[in-house]
């Protein structure tokens, strides 16, 4: 499941005379003059906060957002520790604690309005937007826990709160940071926007050297804090970037503890990233490779479709990625088609070559080979008074019948001379005459041979004569019959 896209709203917007925005309605019965805006404050987002001196209320507009979170400083232990959600009274988790005050979502049916007492300090708000929310002029916040950030090296997740002088306990945004003290550890973040900033946490007095490489251009910066702190700027672009896709690689180059007598590398903590989007809505948010949880592989993540029932297709970047996938599929199909066509063409050529070789041959319906002549011409095998056909004048054994020639198309054809034609006719007549003698002999009786054997030989000879007449008539035409 993809992550929701969240935008951050600084407390500065409370200073406007009209503080209504598209995702919430605010009500200050005593007027905005009861809001005390403070700037130049370290350890707060954008170094500012706003303190309320009178009660006020807020009604989220769920048609353009899906969750709503407020960050700030809870009242001191001596002040009222409650706030109102609808008609229900809720308690802050800890007095004098800086961090997330509450977080509600559109799924919570009871979260329709909020009422706050005085002495609450507002630092910033974070809302998750839908596909229809206009992002023009907004700032997107990406927490360090996001899968859109690819961590490289020995980074570890730290969930420990800090204790700062004058603030009590302080939690980082999202209640976690990614920490490292190893030189060369880095993270990579891809975005589509016109500016980008990296913020973090300093846990002890220390100094760092980091390199922020943006679109291949390195930018080295030194960071030095004499005291621990939150919302510390690690890197920010000095000029607007051209709209489009960009890549930031943030690398730890050096770290040192700035405490007398202390030895070792200092720990740096990355908390969140801010960037100004160059896309109008999250439907137009490009897809980038993102870190797969628990492994070094990457998957693809995009905006969460939290449009409250508006399931429109992805924007221009999604269309371009879809086009790339479609182009790859079409290319693969075309390649398969070319391979199949090549195999078919090769087989067709082989078939033509085989037919060409076979075209030089003709059927041989009456071709008598050397090893077959004896079995085909020696019709009678028993010893009786009739002459053996093998020695008849004009027997097939006595003349060649395999005369070959070539026609106008280069094909071999079988021809026969007039003399061979006459010899075959005489051989046929001699067989018929022998058959007639055997029939006469059968009628008169043959003391040296049984009548059944004689009948079998006669049937065999008739079959040989019929076959000879039929085959030679088919081969040489009706003139042979």
Automatic annotation (TrEMBL):
Record keyword Transmembrane helix present: yes
Presence of keyword Membrane: yes
InterPro entries membership: Immunoregulatory_rcpt-like (IPR051694)
Chain segments carrying region Disordered: 290-321, 438-457
Location relative to the cell: Membrane
CDD domains in alphabetical order: TM_EGFR-like
Membrane topology: Single-pass membrane protein
Transmembrane region(s): 324-345
One GO location term (cellular component): cell periphery
Highest taxon, organism lineage: Eukaryota
Extent of Low complexity compositional bias: 291-321
Keywords, ordered alphabetically: Membrane, Transmembrane, Transmembrane helix
Protein known as: Uncharacterized protein
Natural source organism: Tetrapyrgos nigripes
Record lineage: Eukaryota, Fungi, Dikarya, Basidiomycota, Agaricomycotina
């Amino acid at each position: 499941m993809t992550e929701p896209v969240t935008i951050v709203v600084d407390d500065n917007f409370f200073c406007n005379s009209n503080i209504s925005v598209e995702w919430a309605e605010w009500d200050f019965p005593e007027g905005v003059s009861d809001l005390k805006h403070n700037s130049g404050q370290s350890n707060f987002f954008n170094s500012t906060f706003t303190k309320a001196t009178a009660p006020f209320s807020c009604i989220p507009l769920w048609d353009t957002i899906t969750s709503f979170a407020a960050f700030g400083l809870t009242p001191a232990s001596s002040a009222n520790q409650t706030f109102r959600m609808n008609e229900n009274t809720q308690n802050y988790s800890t007095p004098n604690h800086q961090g997330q005050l509450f977080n509600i979502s559109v799924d919570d049916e009871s979260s329709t309005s909020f009422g706050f007492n005085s002495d609450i300090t507002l630092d910033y708000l974070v809302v998750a937007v839908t596909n229809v929310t206009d992002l023009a002029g907004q700032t997107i916040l990406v927490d360090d826990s996001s899968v859109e950030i690819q961590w490289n090296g020995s980074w570890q997740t730290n969930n420990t709160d800090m204790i700062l002088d004058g603030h009590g306990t302080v939690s980082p945004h999202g209640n976690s940071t990614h920490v490292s003290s190893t030189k060369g550890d880095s993270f990579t973040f891809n975005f589509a926007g016109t500016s980008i900033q990296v913020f973090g946490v300093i846990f002890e007095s220390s100094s760092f050297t980091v390199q922020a490489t943006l679109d291949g251009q390195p930018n080295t910066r030194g960071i030095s804090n004499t005291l621990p702190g939150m919302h510390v700027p690690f890197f920010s672009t000095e000029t607007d970037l051209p709209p489009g896709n960009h890549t930031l690689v943030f690398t730890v180059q050096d770290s040192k503890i700035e405490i007398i007598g202390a030895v070792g590398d200092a720990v740096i903590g990355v908390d969140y990233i801010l960037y100004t989007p160059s896309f109008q809505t999250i439907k137009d948010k490009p897809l980038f490779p993102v870190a797969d949880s628990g492994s070094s592989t990457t998957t693809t993540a995009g905006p969460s479709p939290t449009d409250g029932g508006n399931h429109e297709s992805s924007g221009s970047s999604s269309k371009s990625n879809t086009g790339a996938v479609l182009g790859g599929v079409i290319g693969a199909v075309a390649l398969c088609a070319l391979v199949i066509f090549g195999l078919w063409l090769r087989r067709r050529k082989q078939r033509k070559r085989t037919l060409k070789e076979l075209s030089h041959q003709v059927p041989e319906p009456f071709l008598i080979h050397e090893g077959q002549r004896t079995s085909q011409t020696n019709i009678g095998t028993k010893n009786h008074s009739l002459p053996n056909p093998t020695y008849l004048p004009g027997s097939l054994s006595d003349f060649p019948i395999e005369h070959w020639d070539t026609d106008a198309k280069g094909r071999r054809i079988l021809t026969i001379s007039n003399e061979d034609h006459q010899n075959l006719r005489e051989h046929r007549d001699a067989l018929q005459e022998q058959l007639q003698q055997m029939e006469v002999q059968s009628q008169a009786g043959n003391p040296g041979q049984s009548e059944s054997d004689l009948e079998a030989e006669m049937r065999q000879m008739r079959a040989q004569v019929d076959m000879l007449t039929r085959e030679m008539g088919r081969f040489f035409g009706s003139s042979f019959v």
